[in-house]
């Protein structure tokens, strides 16, 4: 069986990633560079400022929507699996189980066993345990298991309570052209930095800026309680990993 609705959600997440990539591609063109003079020693300073005032919120909203669609793809697959394994179970509000630890996942399943055994035949309990074994051994929906599932779950959970805060990280400024009073020229670039806009680059005394260069920007998102950040480029492979998970769930459903 093909979980068509799950695949549609992944397709839509990929579509939104394409929009995100287009949004990110124009950011460097929206960085202004202004030359200021240091009032203390008189050297030039380049001030780089992001003029795109809605970039942070736009990117945060798109990332949140991508995570929501990917998580929904698992929820859509979960309901028919439960219905086939446990006829009569209420699946109206069920969500695909993602836990912080493998032990937490096991405990949740074990905690529901008495209710299943009380209302339904033993065969349903056996299939319930088969589902648990499959999740632990194959899908691994917990931190330290499947990284894509856990990260998307974390983003989706955080986005329900507050707008995500993407981190803009500069991969550097390239193509800066300088000239000194002797007419000698020099090309310069910078190291990457996570310093927020505006970003100031001090030029040595006696040198003048001929070309302010171009800023390259990477965008990161938080993927865990420890503050670990990942580049938004990871969202595209996450869609692929979710599609693989759906395919394995389909195979398991057919064999259940």
Written account of the structure:
The chain is of the alpha+beta class. 48% of the residues lie in helices and 21% in strands. The chain is built from six helices and seven strands, in the order H-E-E-H-H-H-H-E-E-E-E-E-H. The protein has helices at 4-25, 55-85, 102-119, 122-139, 147-159, 235-255; strands spanning 31-37, 44-50, 167-180, 185-188, 199-202, 207-222, 229-231. Strands 4-3-6-7 form a four-stranded antiparallel β-sheet, with no helix packed on it. A three-stranded antiparallel β-sheet has the order 1-2-5, with no helix packed on it. A hairpin with a 4-residue loop joins strand 3 and strand 4. The longest helix has 31 residues, at 55-85. It is elongated, with a radius of gyration of 25 Å. The termini are close together. The model has no long low-confidence stretch (mean pLDDT 90).
Brief overview:
Helix content is 48%, strand content 21%.
Topology:
Blueprint: H1 4-25, E1 31-37, E2 44-50, H2 55-85, H3 102-119, H4 122-139, H5 147-159, E3 167-180, E4 185-188, E5 199-202, E6 207-222, E7 229-231, H6 235-255
Antiparallel strand pairs: 1-2, 2-5, 3-4, 3-6, 6-7
Helix pairs in contact: 1-2, 1-6, 2-5, 2-6, 3-4
């Amino acid at each position: 069986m093909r979980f068509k609705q799950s695949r549609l959600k992944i397709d839509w997440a990929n579509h939104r990633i394409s929009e995100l990539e287009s949004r990110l591609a124009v950011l460097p063109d929206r960085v202004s560079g202004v030359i200021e003079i240091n009032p203390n020693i008189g050297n030039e300073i380049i001030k780089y400022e992001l003029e795109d005032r809605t970039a942070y919120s736009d990117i945060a909203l798109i990332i949140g929507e991508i995570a929501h669609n990917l998580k929904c793809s698992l929820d859509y697959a979960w309901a028919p699996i439960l219905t086939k394994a446990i006829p009569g179970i209420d699946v109206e509000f069920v969500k695909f189980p993602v836990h912080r630890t493998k032990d937490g996942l096991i405990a949740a399943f074990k905690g529901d066993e008495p209710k299943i055994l009380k209302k339904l035949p033993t065969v349903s309990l056996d299939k319930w345990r088969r589902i648990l074994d499959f999740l632990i051994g194959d899908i691994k929906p917990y931190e330290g298991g499947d990284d894509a599932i856990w990260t998307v779950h974390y983003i989706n959970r955080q986005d329900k309570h507050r707008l995500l805060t993407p981190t803009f990280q500069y991969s550097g400024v390239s193509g800066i052209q300088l000239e000194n009073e002797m007419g000698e020229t020099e090309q310069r670039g910078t190291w990457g930095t996570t310093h927020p806009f505006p970003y100031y680059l001090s030029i040595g005394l006696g040198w003048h800026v001929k070309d302010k260069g171009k800023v390259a920007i990477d965008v990161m998102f938080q993927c865990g309680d420890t503050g670990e950040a990942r580049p938004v480029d990871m969202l595209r492979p996450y869609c692929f990993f979710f599609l693989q998970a759906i395919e394995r769930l389909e195979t398991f459903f057919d064999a259940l």
